[in-house]
Amino acid sequence: MKVLVVGGTGYIGKRIVKASLAQGHTTYVLLRPETAYDIDKLQMVLGFKEQGAILIEASFSDPASLLHAVKQVDVVICTMSGAHSQNLTLQLKLVDAIKEAGNVKRFLPSEFGMDPSRMGHALEPGRDTFDKKMIVRKAIEDAGIPFTYVSANCFGGFFVGNLSQMGPFIPSRDKVCLYGDGSVKAIFLDEEDVGTYTIKTIDDPRTLNKTLYLRPQQNIISQKELVGMWEKLIGKELEKSSITAEDFLASMKEKDYYSQVVVGHLYHIFFEGCLANFEIGEGGEEASTLYPEVQYTRMDEYLKRYV
Ligand code: NDP
């Protein structure tokens, strides 16, 4: 397949570029004019080129350039930043280009987290991300563009390295605060596996117009189980405290906007259990079941890098 990655310099985008090249696809990476001013990003993009990627220049403020870019490929994967959720709706320009081009066999918009279609009840201000992702979904479906939505659950770097605590992305060797009794199941992924599963699915008819949920069985674990893995690795028990849902939500008040978003998302994941508290229905498929050949990383393995 000819695959275009939009947002290839990003946290998950660079893993998707890597996986696309590794799985033998002709991989195009969108190069925005802004990137030429960022030396690290530019070097990364040039590195992709060295590994065989084709750079294609286009800008979100130039619709003709986006149209030209998507006309070259069969599959478009967008990994646009979700940190500033207004960026997510920039994807509408990409949707317009894909609709006009008419040749794209599959579009994977920037999702890669919780399933936004299940987050209609989410707390402000964190729900904005889900709302924006749903606006993009509606535009895709209204335009009749073939799609796959990837629900990638918790990226390890954001949720495992810190034992799912707010603050630094590195695990404490002394103490940890559990959400409630720490027993609610969440789902954690190595980012490299997110890239691998995402690319596996782009030409799979079983996931056409469906959501691909990344739920490797051994990575459906609670915060307490995650902490237990870390304790085993360092040979030491951490001092544990716990916070109730009410106190955790109350802590939102004195926090800045970004931290309020994070508190809301953590609440839904670790108190409500929003990642694992539903069965995958007709509109979805599970990645490790579809692709059992992928040797996914378990979280005790993932944690070893921090020892
Ligand atoms: P990043 O913040 O790393 O940004 C990705 C890319 O977005 C950038 O490298 C850039 O690509 C592009 N971009 C940023 N701003 C603009 C702009 N104004 N105009 C055009 N392009 C822009 O994104 P992430 O990898 O963190 O997020 C990608 C997706 O993954 C999001 O949907 C997010 O919600 C989700 N996510 C999921 C997590 C999880 O744990 N499941 C954790 C974090 C994110 P370039 O310069 O290459 O054009």
UniProtKB/TrEMBL annotation:
Residues in NmrA-like domain copies: 2-303
Gene Ontology biological process terms in this record: lignan biosynthetic process
UniProt GO molecular function: pinoresinol reductase activity
Keywords: NADP, Oxidoreductase
CDD domains: PCBER_SDR_a (cd05259)
Record-stated family: Belongs to the NmrA-type oxidoreductase family. Isoflavone reductase subfamily.
Name recorded for this polypeptide: NmrA-like domain-containing protein
The organism of origin for this protein: Aquilegia coerulea (Rocky mountain columbine)
